[in-house]
Write a structure and sequence with these properties.
- The protein is an alpha/beta fold.
- The chain has a single domain (36-292), classed as Rossmann fold (3-Layer(aba) Sandwich).
- Helix content is 44%, strand content 11%.
- The strands form 3 sheets. Strands 5-4-3-6-8-7 form a 6-stranded mixed sheet, sandwiched between helices. A two-stranded antiparallel sheet has the order 1-2.
- Bound molecules: zinc ion (2 copies).
- One zinc ion binds next to helix 1.
């Protein structure tokens, strides 16, 4: 197969677009696609301060790399949740630090243990994943707001978004559907604007981007991850995509176009502010501050980020 643009040997066949691309045309395509996504959803400009939540995985590092190459003012933030099994957090941080050092980029590291005074693995397996997700959303948001960043970016790709969308529709989670978006405006002084500039790139595309750029990343997922359902949905949707190329993108972009059908059902009027940190919450303290006080309460009804089900 040959590159549709320059006729050199292709490295990827973009079936959804019915064209192959060589390495350099693929690289140009990725940069252009992300730039267009940022513009299309009016995410941020080159004058704004962008905070990128980096985990060490391929998507968040690809995002940081792309934003820097496009000339955006992007600083990285790694939240160390101190997962010791398989030395997971340490190894992830090593990868992120090496990436930042090689490119002379600013990286901030926030340690959950400094806030909670204990390791997340002491919390109990059953609630570990949702608690970890909640803590990461809380700390990335908090750093973005407290340090004056205009926007917080995460590396969610099209496959992530489509799997979450599929799950939200299967369960008719109308509130979640209302809040699933490539861009969430800051609707409270303690909440940052949030953007997902990779929403129109597939997992396959970000993976190839990383390989072609020669960037090292964490290939294994968290030893505690319970993404079995999400992985199953991703496989299922890839089967549909194989039969009918372009389905994933159509499913997502038409959902965004018809989002008015899903009004936000959350009663924002009844929200209070957390007595410790000021985050909007339904309780006296937000879920994060409840954990800080030593509570093991449920983290189910958390509003400090409208993005729940998804995994970063
Ligand atoms: Zn080419
Ligand atoms: Zn709080």
């Amino acid at each position: 197969m040959k590159c549709k643009v320059c006729k050199k040997p292709a490295v990827i066949n973009l079936r959804a677009q019915n064209r192959g691309l060589c390495a350099s045309c693929f690289d140009a395509y990725i940069l252009d696609r992300v730039e267009r996504t940022i513009k299309r959803f009016a995410m941020f400009t080159r004058k704004e301060k962008v905070l990128v939540a980096v985990s060490g995985g391929k998507d968040s590092l690809a995002l940081w790399d792309i934003l820097i190459r496009l000339g955006y003012d992007a600083v990285g933030l790694f939240v160390d949740v101190d997962i010791r099994e398989g030395d997971y957090s340490c190894r992830s941080l090593d990868v992120v630090e090496a990436f930042a050092r090689d490119r002379n980029l600013d990286l901030m590291v926030e340690r959950l243990k400094d806030w909670w005074g204990r390791s997340i693995e002491e919390i109990g397996r059953r609630v570990l994943c949702p608690t970890c997700g909640m803590a990461k959303r809380y700390l990335t948001n908090r750093v973005a707001v407290d340090r004056g960043f205009n926007v917080l970016c995460t590396g969610h790709n099209l496959d992530d978004e489509v799997a979450v969308l599929f799950s939200n529709i299967l369960n008719w989670q109308v509130g979640y559907l209302a809040r699933q978006a490539p861009l969430l405006e800051a609707w409270h002084p303690k909440l940052s604007k949030k953007a997902k500039p990779l929403v129109l790139l597939t997992e396959k595309e970000t993976a190839l981007y990383m390989v072609l750029r020669g960037i090292g990343y964490m290939k294994d997922s968290c030893p505690h991850a319970r993404g079995a359902t999400t992985l199953f949905y991703k496989r299922l949707l890839n089967q549909v995509e194989w039969r009918s190329p372009g389905t994933k993108q159509r499913f997502y972009t038409l959902f965004i176009r018809h989002k008015v059908l899903f009004q936000d059902k959350e009663e924002r009027g009844s929200l209070r502010e957390c007595e410790r940190c000021g985050q909007p919450t339904w309780e006296r303290l937000c879920a994060f501050c409840r954990m800080m006080e030593g509570g093991y309460g449920d983290t189910g009804r958390e509003v400090s980020e409208g993005d729940q089900v998804s995994e970063g």
